[in-house]
Amino acid sequence: MATAKVNARNTKKAAMKAERAKAEGLKAAWQEVCRKQKNLMTMMIVLLVTSVVLLVFSMTTLRPQNTTVVVGYGDVYGEIAGISGGYRSDSWVNMLAFPVLALIYGIIHNLLVLRVYRKYGEKMAILVAGMSILMVVGTFVAIIRLIGEW
C-alpha cells in the first residue's frame, strides 16, 4: 500500500518534470530562433500579426443585433443534406468560430512551428508557418464572402 502511494507520487513528479522540460524546450527553441533564424522569426511574427488582424476583423463583423446571419456556404453540404446548396443562415453565435480560429492560428500554430523547428529544422518550420499564413488568408476569404451576403 505504501509503495503504491510512493509510486503514484513519483509518477506525478516525473510528469511535472517532463512538463517543465517541454516548456523550457519551447523557450530555448524560441531563443534560438530569435538569435539564429531571422527568416523563421519573421514568418512567425507575420503569422501572429495576421492572426491578430483576423481576430479584430472577425470580432468587428459579428452582428449580435441581428437574430440571424449568414454563417456558411456550401454546395456539398446541400447535396449531402438533400436540400439545395448555397448560403445558410443561423444565429450570430455561430460566427464566434472565426475569432476562435484566429486565436488558434496565432497561438497554437506558432507553438507548432517551434516544435517543428526543434524536431525537423528551419526549412520545415518555415513551410508550416507559411501554410498557417495561407490558412489565415483563406479564413479572411471565407469571412469576406459571408459578409458580402448579409
Plain-language structure description:
The N and C termini lie far apart (66 Å). By secondary structure, this protein is mostly helical. It has a two-stranded antiparallel ribbon with strand order 1-2. The protein has five helices and two strands, in the order ααβαβαα. The chain is extended. It has helices at residues 2-36, 38-60, 75-81, 97-120, 122-148, and strands spanning 69-74, 86-90. The model has no long low-confidence stretch (mean pLDDT 80). Helix 2 runs antiparallel to helix 4, helix 2 packs parallel to helix 5 (122-148) and helix 4 runs antiparallel to helix 5.
Describe this structure in a few short sentences.
The chain is mainly alpha-helical and about 150 residues long.
Low-pLDDT runs: none
Structural class by sheet pairing and helices: mainly alpha
Overall 3D geometry?
Answer: extended
Mean pLDDT: 80
What is the string of helix and strand elements? HHEHEHH
Fraction in beta strands: 5-15%
Give me the count of strands.
2
Q: Report the radius of gyration as a whole number of Å.
A: 21 Å
Describe the biggest sheet? 2 strands, antiparallel
| Helix count, DSSP H or I runs of 4 or more residues | 5
Distance separating the two termini: 66 Å
Helix content: over 70%
* Strand order of the biggest β-sheet: 1-2
Strand and helix map with partners:
Layout: H1 2-36, H2 38-60, E1 69-74, H3 75-81, E2 86-90, H4 97-120, H5 122-148
Helix pairs in contact: 1-4, 2-4, 2-5, 4-5
